[in-house]
Amino acid sequence: MTESRDLILDHASELYLEDGLDGFSMRKLARRVGVTAPALYRHFESRDALLMELIRESAQTMLAYLGRALAGTSPMDRLRRAGAAYLDFALDHPRYFLLYASLCERLDPETMEAEVGEGVESVARFWEDRVRECLQTGAFRPGTPDEIGLTLWTHAYGFVSLYLGGALGLSEDEVRGAYMASCIRILNGIAAPGALPHDTPAPGVPSGNPAADLLHETSTP
Amino acid sequence: MTESRDLILDHASELYLEDGLDGFSMRKLARRVGVTAPALYRHFESRDALLMELIRESAQTMLAYLGRALAGTSPMDRLRRAGAAYLDFALDHPRYFLLYASLCERLDPETMEAEVGEGVESVARFWEDRVRECLQTGAFRPGTPDEIGLTLWTHAYGFVSLYLGGALGLSEDEVRGAYMASCIRILNGIAAPGALPHDTPAPGVPSGNPAADLLHETSTP
């Protein structure tokens, strides 16, 4: 029972990414899974309920990755680890990454509120907390959590989605280094002067980059 | 003749965005346009030729917008104007924006090289030139054009595609201000100390942001 439920979700995420919300039907999905439509309805009461479940699963999975970043030893270190965890999540679960932003916005927020709002809100709150604690401890220049969060999110999302779409011409080995170097470059524009550890450029990072050593786990115990 | 060619391209970009590359067929397209498949082939010799034309049109249109930025009075001003032009292009031609990165990478580069490589290369070269002149005049901290360009591109792409996907919850009026403020935040991490004009925060931009006035056309004649 559980296995076939996972299989349905797996095919469902694939179908959604191929055909979009408008092209997503339970009939098409049943054909893909190799079962009858009524068999699908034994697991999910409606198309929307199934799509909601995809959001819930994506949010829960993302949160499990992000949560590891809380072991970081300072607000900035937790933010850095969260940025890395976001990439790890996307590389391990590219479909969840790709459907999350798209699907959250396309479904009726009223319905979503009741059904999966909690997971989605937890993800948003996780990032707000990371930015807010950097602001409160003076690690960031003054700004609002919303504005700074938007800059961090759009960069990370753009980088990861261009990579997953094949547009960056980077291998999976290369993407981690390039992504973290780019995140650090962004943080340089947001961090308070002196809030980032050193001025030692790391390999592949331009000199004069005060956040270079954040690239390395060695800066944290 | 020209009109129906434009109509075909219009429907083609819509179809591509809905059904992806795999779901794109000349038969489906003909049905949408309301003509027979042979009628399509009078305009485009193959499905790939038509898709190539979409890339060529997108690249040419984007380049027309970007080119206006060359009227800027300094490397940094041209870069700022180019960032704004990129958003203008995306808002005016969302389908071209959305299909460009996706389609460029999915078609055979060998074929593309011959057919539309010039437009795509011109767009890439335009951005390289903007970054390189900022580096050469000392407006940027040391770095490689590739790395810095990647940070600028991924942020701008992420911001615009999340906006177009409806994920940012911003109106078109709001998006311009929020986008430019976010670009300026990014430039703060890349610019050499003192290379950005003032330290006066603009409305909606955190104080301590030395690039705030770049938001305003008034800083250029």
Helix content of chain A: 55-70%
Q: Globular, elongated, flat, extended or rod-shaped: what is the shape of chain A?
A: elongated
State the end-to-end distance of chain A.
43 Å
Low-confidence stretches of chain A: 198-213, 215-221
The domain count of chain A comes to 2
Rg calc of chain A: 20 Å
Biggest interface, CB < 8 A: A-B, 47 and 47 residues
The helix count of chain A comes to 10
Provide the residue-averaged pLDDT of chain A.
Answer: 83
Beta-strand portion of chain A reads under 5%
Largest sheet of chain A: none
Topology-level CATH name of the largest domain in chain A = Tetracycline Repressor, domain 2
Annotation, overall tally of beta strands of chain A: 0
Instruction: Give the CATH architecture of the largest domain in chain A.
Output: Orthogonal Bundle
Describe the structure.
- The structure is a homodimer of 221-residue chains.
- By secondary structure, chain A is mainly α.
- Chain A has two domains: 1-44, Homeodomain-like (Arc Repressor Mutant, subunit A, Orthogonal Bundle), CATH 1.10.10.60; 54-219, Orthogonal Bundle (Tetracycline Repressor, domain 2).
- Chain A has ten helices and no strands.
- Chain A has helices at residues 2-19, 26-33, 37-43, 47-67, 75-92, 94-106, 109-115, 117-136, 145-164, 172-190.
- In chain A, helix 9 runs antiparallel to helix 10 (172-190).
- Chain A is elongated and about 60 Å long.
- The first copy, chain A, starts with a helix and ends in a 31-residue tail after the last helix.
What is the topological layout?
2 copies of one chain form a homodimer.
Chain A: H1 2-19, H2 26-33, H3 37-43, H4 47-67, H5 75-92, H6 94-106, H7 109-115, H8 117-136, H9 145-164, H10 172-190
Helix pairs in contact in A: 1-2, 1-6, 4-5, 4-6, 4-8, 5-6, 5-8, 5-10, 8-9, 9-10
